[in-house]
């Protein structure tokens, strides 16, 4: 049976990249009637330093962002990772399945650890095994993510496969990454070769889900572009990463294809396109930030939702991790 699992790190302001690459699609999958499990991966967030008060606030704010984006806690399971201990348990078992050589190929570790990898936490290195545990703990079959997480989902398939092979079982399914739509990789507004990221030091490089209308308009107005008008076809965007990025953002926000957007704006300059994009973004994002603010007024309600979601998640995860121990030969006698 199809089951979706995906997660977001509560490690700072969520961005338009998180919204288009993940949150918006999470709500769509739920509305298609597939079983959906969504997780605020606080244990992933702490692989780099997090101030405790900030982590608490960001976790609740990310939960508010899910709900404001249309994830309905009555129809999806929504919880924070650390409240379900089975994630850490299965991650340890997978640490013993995954090979060092596999981890050494992970590009996100290289990006995040930077030049001085000796100073990175051991958790940052082991992070992809925890992510595999997140997914396989629910026997999830589909993982909606942005382009940047593809390698980690492929590693998850390798771990599932090796575990099944090592123990001669057919226990873990090999999940598929779902990387769909016009905005699977939203780029920085300041540099068309860098991904839009909550950790970019430049706030002008990204749209935050909490930005107000004026800030959104200003950031799009100042977004880096070339001076050419928009082309007649998408092929005309191939050597124009900044222009392509803005077209993709417009397409994803409007539920159009990039080809349709280009057809509508062919021959127009950015003086016309950027204000149209800003208006569209404000129209789509303002209700989300308003709803997030309202939800954040009463965090007891958010905490109640996360607690209930954790109980539902635990009910699925506990038997699966117990079975995994059993397969591996650990005595279960309580
Ligand atoms: P994270 O927190 O970096 O990002 C959350 C989701 O947002 C997507 N995303 C983007 N999509 C398009 N354009 C962008 N600029 C952009 N930036 C981020 C990400 O691809 C992701 O889907 N390791 C994961 C979290 C995780 C997870 C999991 C995901 C932990 N366990 C299990 C799926 C399944 C991460 O760091 O995502």
From TrEMBL:
<keyword id="KW-0436">Ligase</keyword>
<feature type="binding site">
    <location>
        <begin position="146"/>
        <end position="148"/>
    </location>
    <ligand>
        <name>ATP</name>
    </ligand>
</feature>
<dbReference type="InterPro" id="IPR002306">
    <property type="entry name" value="Trp-tRNA-ligase"/>
</dbReference>
<dbReference type="InterPro" id="IPR014729">
    <property type="entry name" value="Rossmann-like_a/b/a_fold"/>
</dbReference>
<comment type="function">
    <text>Catalyzes the attachment of tryptophan to tRNA(Trp).</text>
</comment>
<dbReference type="InterPro" id="IPR050203">
    <property type="entry name" value="Trp-tRNA_synthetase"/>
</dbReference>
<dbReference type="GO" id="GO:0004830">
    <property type="term" value="F:tryptophan-tRNA ligase activity"/>
</dbReference>
<protein>
    <recommendedName>
        <fullName>Tryptophan--tRNA ligase</fullName>
        <ecNumber>6.1.1.2</ecNumber>
    </recommendedName>
</protein>
<feature type="binding site">
    <location>
        <begin position="9"/>
        <end position="11"/>
    </location>
    <ligand>
        <name>ATP</name>
    </ligand>
</feature>
<keyword id="KW-0648">Protein biosynthesis</keyword>
<dbReference type="Pfam" id="PF00579">
    <property type="entry name" value="tRNA-synt_1b"/>
</dbReference>
<dbReference type="InterPro" id="IPR001412">
    <property type="entry name" value="aa-tRNA-synth_I_CS"/>
</dbReference>
<feature type="short sequence motif" description="'HIGH' region">
    <location>
        <begin position="10"/>
        <end position="18"/>
    </location>
</feature>
<dbReference type="InterPro" id="IPR024109">
    <property type="entry name" value="Trp-tRNA-ligase_bac-type"/>
</dbReference>
<keyword id="KW-0030">Aminoacyl-tRNA synthetase</keyword>
<feature type="binding site">
    <location>
        <begin position="17"/>
        <end position="18"/>
    </location>
    <ligand>
        <name>ATP</name>
    </ligand>
</feature>
<feature type="binding site">
    <location>
        <position position="134"/>
    </location>
    <ligand>
        <name>L-tryptophan</name>
    </ligand>
</feature>
<comment type="similarity">
    <text>Belongs to the class-I aminoacyl-tRNA synthetase family.</text>
</comment>
<keyword id="KW-0547">Nucleotide-binding</keyword>
<feature type="binding site">
    <location>
        <begin position="195"/>
        <end position="199"/>
    </location>
    <ligand>
        <name>ATP</name>
    </ligand>
</feature>
<dbReference type="InterPro" id="IPR002305">
    <property type="entry name" value="aa-tRNA-synth_Ic"/>
</dbReference>
<keyword id="KW-0067">ATP-binding</keyword>
<keyword id="KW-0963">Cytoplasm</keyword>
<comment type="subunit">
    <text>Homodimer.</text>
</comment>
<feature type="binding site">
    <location>
        <position position="186"/>
    </location>
    <ligand>
        <name>ATP</name>
    </ligand>
</feature>
<feature type="short sequence motif" description="'KMSKS' region">
    <location>
        <begin position="195"/>
        <end position="199"/>
    </location>
</feature>
């Amino acid at each position: 049976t199809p089951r979706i699992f995906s997660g977001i790190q509560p490690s700072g302001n969520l961005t338009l990249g998180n919204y288009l690459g993940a949150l918006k699609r999470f709500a769509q999958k739920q509305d298609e009637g597939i079983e959906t499990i969504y997780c605020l991966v606080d244990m992933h967030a702490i692989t780099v330093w997090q101030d405790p008060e900030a982590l608490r606030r960001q976790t609740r704010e990310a939960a508010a962002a899910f709900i404001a984006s249309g994830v309905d806690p009555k129809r999806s399971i929504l919880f924070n990772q650390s409240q379900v201990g089975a994630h850490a348990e299965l991650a340890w078992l997978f640490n013993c399945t995954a090979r060092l050589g596999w981890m050494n190929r992970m590009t996100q570790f290289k990006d995040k650890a930077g030049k001085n990898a000796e100073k990175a936490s051991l958790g940052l290195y082991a992070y992809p095994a925890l992510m595999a545990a997140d997914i396989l703990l629910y026997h999830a079959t589909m993982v909606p993510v942005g382009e940047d997480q593809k390698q980690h989902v492929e590693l998850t398939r390798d771990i599932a496969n090796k575990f099944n092979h090592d123990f001669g079982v057919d226990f873990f399914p090999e999940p598929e990454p779902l990387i769909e739509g016009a905005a699977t990789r939203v780029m920085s507004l300041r540099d068309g070769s860098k991904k839009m990221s909550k950790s970019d030091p430049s706030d002008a490089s990204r749209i935050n889900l909490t930005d107000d209308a004026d800030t959104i308009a200003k950031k799009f107005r100042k977004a880096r572009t070339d001076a050419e008008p928009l082309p007649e076809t998408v092929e005309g965007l191939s050597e124009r990463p900044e222009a392509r990025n803005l077209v993709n953002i417009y397409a994803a926000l409007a539920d159009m294809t990039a080809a349709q957007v280009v057809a509508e704006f062919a021959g127009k300059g950015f003086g016309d396109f950027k204000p149209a994009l800003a208006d569209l973004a404000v129209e789509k994002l303002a209700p989300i930030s308003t709803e997030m603010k309202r939800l954040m007024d009463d965090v007891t309600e958010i905490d109640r939702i996360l607690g209930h979601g954790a109980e539902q998640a635990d009910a699925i995860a506990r038997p699966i991790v117990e079975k995994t121990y059993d397969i591996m030969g650990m005595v279960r006698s309580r």
